[in-house]
Amino acid sequence: MRNHRVFKFRAGNANDLDALFDSYVWFAGLSALNDPYEGFAALSNENIDDDFREKYLAAVYSKEPKKEINPEKEASKVRQECQGDSFSEYVDTKTAELINSYYEEHKNDFKIFSLSLAKDQHEFPAPLNNMLMWSHYANGFKGFCIEFDFEKLKESIETNMECELGTSQVAYATDGKLPVVNMKTFMQSTIDDSKDSSFEIIDAFTKKEQSWFYENEVRFISTTAGKHEYSSDAINAIYVSENAPNWLKQSIMTFAVANSNLKLFLIKLHRSEYKFGFERINA
Asked: What is the model's pTM?
């Protein structure tokens, strides 16, 4: 995702200014985010027959620290002892418990920093020109917005923090359905010792309902919460609302003077149309 512009809207409080002047961003867990369905997924046990369940059960037994046990014979024995649908119910119930635990581990390990990706090559593209973004994330059009170079930001965080970040663009569900975690994928991953089920869970964490589409969200993914420092040259520009208090405008002007390579804009309300005007400011 080289040469991509990404935007972070800020309310303009003390924490936001501290992060700006000290060049850091904050990674948070899913439970701290504002979407009530963040981290939700539906579990499906479709397309699994009892032969596959028996094979999976043998794989589970083979990984247990027991001696003098034949995994295949043990799985076959359990199947024979179960009558009718009770074998599938037994295996699926136990597997669902394992998946839920596995899923919670991923949720606890998954820390993100969210940005909005430019939708086109326009000088002032959506979501920068989106009124909802300024209303919801910039203190009702009284805050500011930072434009970053996506790749510079990622590379500088990885260098400063000695870590490797994952990235993912959020997909928006148009059918109203939650993302699905498949029991069969988990079973196959157990048999193969693969990470396919882990990847499927992480993919579920980057899906949201269609009403969030206006954000055009892209996520940096870390295993560590809290401050992640970056290099200030990752900032392309700062956009300040004309309704921002004077002390906030002055603080950002001070920052712009100390970082002469970035561009500074005042965002103004149009007087006859529902749109923004962008006025370049010389710091």
From this structure: 0.90
Q: How far apart are CA 247 and CA 2, in angstroms?
A: 35
Hey, which residues does 65 pair with through a beta bridge? none
Cα–Cα distance measured from residue 276 to residue 134, given in angstroms and rounded to the nearest whole number: 11
Chain position carrying tokens 């080289």: 2
Residue (of 257, 238, 283, 255) closest to 21 by Cα position: 255
What single DSSP character describes residue 177?
A: P
Residues ≥6 apart with Cβ < 8 Å to 254:
none
Partnered with residue 231 across adjacent β-strands are: none
DSSP 142-172: TSEEEEEEHHHHHHHHHHHHT---EEEEPEE
Q: For residues 197 and 75, give the distance between their C-alpha atoms in angstroms, rounded to a whole number.
A: 22
pLDDT, tens only, 220-254: 999 999 999 999 999 999 999 999 999 999 999 99
Tokens, residue 95: 């597997």
Find the angle CA(147)-CA(149)-CA(25) to the nearest 5 degrees.
65
Of the candidates 104, 99, 103, 142, which has an alpha carbon nearest to the alpha carbon of residue 239? 142
